[in-house]
Design goal:
The complex is a heterodimer. Chain A has two domains: 329 residues, Thiamin diphosphate (ThDP)-binding fold, Pyr/PP domains (Rossmann fold, 3-Layer(aba) Sandwich); 34 residues. Chain A is α/β, with parallel strands linked by helices. Chain A has a six-stranded parallel beta sheet, sandwiched between helices. Chain A is globular. In chain A, helix 10 links the parallel strand 7 and strand 8. Helices cover 45% and strands 9% of the residues of chain A. Chain B is α/β, with parallel strands linked by helices. Chain B folds into two domains: 184 residues, Rossmann fold, CATH 3.40.50; 128 residues, 3-Layer(aba) Sandwich (Rossmann fold). In chain B, the strands form three sheets. In chain B, strands 3-2-4-5-7-6-12 form a seven-stranded mixed beta sheet, sandwiched between helices. Chain B has a five-stranded mixed beta sheet with strand order 9-11-10-13-14, sandwiched between helices. In chain B, strands 1-8 form a two-stranded antiparallel ribbon. In chain B, helix 1 packs parallel to helix 7, helix 3 packs parallel to helix 4 and helix 8 packs across helix 12. The chains are: A alpha/beta, B alpha/beta. At the A-B interface, helix 7, helix 8 and helix 15 of A face helix 3, helix 4 and helix 5 of B.
């Protein structure tokens, strides 16, 4: 083997490209198999009621329905772009439902499922992708920060916020979302260092969906991502990201540890981006259709549905009701998106500063005067 | 109470007062705690306010600014020290894409009361990256405010005003003037932060400067007076927003204007000021607005920095060219 071959060797390949099931991954925390069989894990138990289980299914199904509607709206020209979460619903809902009300989440731009669990109105997310605003929700009231588009920048914000929680003596934690690509960013590594050094109550939740746009995980790391935590001095755990129960259990445990002063945890939610990076992307250029087909067998919603059906926790009437609710949600999202008013032009100027500057106030006045000069001219 | 203070000591006392006045104020930076900072600006503060309020950070500038953003979201008022001007660039992403934009992104729901203290400018015989003047990058970024102090009085009050202000402020400290002294009346009412000030009256030409160049401008004005020329010197004090009304009033009277800064000439603050003065004072101008700045080169090795930096003679040369126009 040449040196070059050695450096490009795939150390942690995407499992399942050739097999219908995950190959042996002894470190993968799983509570629900792809076939919907409930299994136990020695380190992570989950105490969850039937009502909660049905609630999780409802979350997953409605979030997917929202995502489908948003993709359709983009295709019809009603959104500038959409970043689909297809396939990552369990990772996001499981993580989001692990949060306490007083915790604070720091999303990327794909965490629509987490937004859902924080009671963010989907229309306040749609407004961002329609180009009306940069996200319409109140980050403080919802405990869900605004989307951050620069890759990884929010990990430092989550860490700093956690340092604030420490100083306040608050028994809360932050949950920083990031993707596999973000683990290559310097700022993410700085966040891991900061979190470790100050034992900050922050949990890093990395959805390894196997691709950073077109770059596969092997381009980001030669070791499993969750192994990296050891180098920073705190625990790392790999969870089946398509298993909402395992994600819920692992994230709950990590957040509890953080709130109790045990410092950060790095969670790698092993999942798959079943759709494109965004509606502008074409994944057929960089990955095989067969890979997607294999991952479809691990669909996060199908396995929970199988479990709920087989165990009698939910009946066909329940699933039909959720489907109906999904269609109502989609209709509301469609109507609300189409009816969204364009913002006033002066919005450009009005929130740049807490205390407006005289030069910017003058520019605003010129802007208004300019537009008023057309009044009565049919513009 | 009036006492004679250096700029460095005035900053130290101002920071101490800010820490006393508001429990949410935090200082963050490299070597600012036990050591008191490489320029000793934070000397003694960690001892008195503890390691949670005067934080010795890991050696990573993006981390300093990025965690400051999170702390600000949580209601704190972080004051970040960047050790030297040339080291701000690892934090540039956080400053430009996050600190500057979060207020607008959140439509005012998330204020960012962060102060970024940067010792700036040359003249200390340092190696690369320790002598730069990056103010234009920040002044060009909407969402930031930029101030540059030139004297102990503004240092003492300005740092407190910046910390109390709701918007993010890049606070530039003239490192080669840290040891310059002046009387500071700590009971007097401070001047507004975002206001320029006439520091020497004159009739023949308006000379503009900020930060370390204010002293150079005043020396030039004194030398010009010996030759019978009366220069009005204005300390701009605030770079963003610029406070140019006093400048316009002066130029309408003198008809001539020269701007001085250490930063490279092209697309520096002087270019913006020249455009604005020309637009507002066109009919009063007897000569084009002239600029004196650093050359459009990387900051040179220290044996050449005296050639690079504007000095009294280069300022007077520009004055001569303006007067001869």
């Amino acid at each position: 083997m040449t040196a070059l071959q050695h450096t490009t060797e795939v150390v942690d390949p995407v499992p399942g490209a050739d097999a219908p099931h995950l190959p042996g991954q002894p470190d993968l925390v799983q509570l629900l198999t792809p076939e919907g069989e409930r299994v136990e894990h020695p380190d992570y138990s989950l105490d969850v009621s039937d009502e909660e289980l049905r609630g999780l299914y409802r979350d997953l199904a409605l979030v997917r329905r929202w995502d489908v509607e948003a993709t359709a709206l983009q295709r019809q020209g009603e959104l500038g772009i959409w970043a689909s979460l297809l396939g990552q619903e369990a990772a996001q809902v499981g993580a989001g439902r692990a949060l306490a009300a007083s915790d604070m989440a720091f999303p990327t731009y794909r965490e629509h499922g987490v937004a859902w669990t924080r009671a963010v109105d989907p229309l306040d997310v749609m407004s961002l992708f329609r180009g009306v605003d940069m996200g319409g929700w109140d980050p403080v009231a919802t405990g869900f920060n605004l989307y951050t588009v620069v890759i990884g920048a929010q990990c430092l914000h989550a860490t700093g916020y956690a340092m604030g929680l420490q100083r306040d003596g608050a028994e809360s934690a932050t949950l920083a979302f990031l993707g596999d690509g973000a683990t290559s960013q310097g700022e993410v590594n700085e966040a891991l260092i900061w979190a470790a050094t100050f034992a900050a109550p922050v949990v890093f939740f990395c959805q390894n969906n196997q691709y950073a746009i077109s770059a596969p995980i092997e381009r980001q790391s030669r070791v499993p991502l969750f192994h990296r935590a050891a180098g920073f001095g705190f625990p790392g755990v790999r969870v089946d990201g398509n298993d909402v129960l395992a994600v819920l259990a692992v994230t709950r445990a990590a957040l509890a540890a953080a709130r109790e002063g045990q410092g950060p945890t790095f969670i790698e939610a092993f999942t798959y981006r079943m759709g494109a990076h965004t509606t502008s992307d074409d994944p057929t250029r960089y990955r095989l259709a067969s890979e997607l087909e294999e991952w479809k067998l691990r669909d996060p919603i199908a396995r929970l549905k199988a479990y709920l059906s087989r165990s009698g926790i939910a009946d066909p009437a329940f699933f039909a009701a959720v489907d109906g609710e999904g269609d109502e949600l989609a209709a509301r999202i469609r109507k609300g998106t189409l009816e969204m008013p364009d913002p006033a032009g002066t919005e450009i100027f009005d929130h740049v500063y807490a205390e407006q500057t005289p030069p910017l106030a003058a520019q605003r006045a010129e802007f208004v005067a300019y537009h008023e000069s057309f009044e009565g001219e049919g513009h | 109470m009036t006492e004679t203070l250096t700029i460095g000591k005035a900053l130290n006392l101002g920071l101490r007062k800010a820490l006393e006045d508001d429990a949410k104020v935090l200082l963050m930076g490299e070597d600012i705690g036990k050591l008191g900072g490489v320029f000793r600006i934070t000397d003694g503060l960690q001892k008195d306010f503890g390691e949670d309020r005067v934080v010795d950070t890991p050696l990573a500038e993006a981390g300093i600014l990025g965690t400051a953003v999170g702390l600000a979201m949580r209601g704190y008022r972080p004051v970040c020290e960047i050790q030297f001007d040339g080291f701000v660039f690892p934090a540039y992403n956080q400053i430009v894409t996050q600190v500057a934009k979060i207020h607008a992104r959140s439509r005012g729901r998330l204020p960012m009361p962060i102060v970024i203290r940067i010792p700036f400018g040359g003249g200390i015989g340092a190696v690369e990256h320790h002598s730069e003047s990056p103010e234009a990058y920040f002044a060009h970024t909407a969402g930031l405010k930029v101030v540059a102090v030139s004297n102990p009085v503004d240092a003492y009050w300005g740092i407190q005003q910046a910390i109390a202000h709701p918007d993010p402020i890049v606070f530039l400290e003239p490192k080669r003037r840290y040891w310059e002294k002046a009387d500071v009346d700590r009971d007097a009412a401070p001047e507004p932060l975002f206001a320029s000030r006439v520091v020497r009256g004159g009739d023949d030409l308006t000379l503009l400067a900020y930060g370390p160049m204010v002293k150079t401008a005043l020396q030039a004005a004194q030398a010009a007076a010996d030759e019978g020329r009366s220069l009005e010197v204005i300390d701009l004090r605030t770079i963003s927003p610029l406070d140019l009304e006093p400048v316009y009033a002066s130029v309408r009277r003198t008809g001539r204007c020269v701007v001085v800064h250490e930063a490279p000439l092209t697309l520096g603050l002087g270019a913006e000021i020249a455009a604005r003065v020309t637009e507002s004072c066109f009919h009063s101008l007897e000569a084009p607005v002239l600029r004196v700045g650093g050359y459009d080169t990387p900051y040179p090795p220290s044996k050449l920095e005296e050639e690079y930096l504007p000095d009294l003679d280069r300022v007077l040369d520009a004055v001569d060219r303006s007067m001869a126009f």
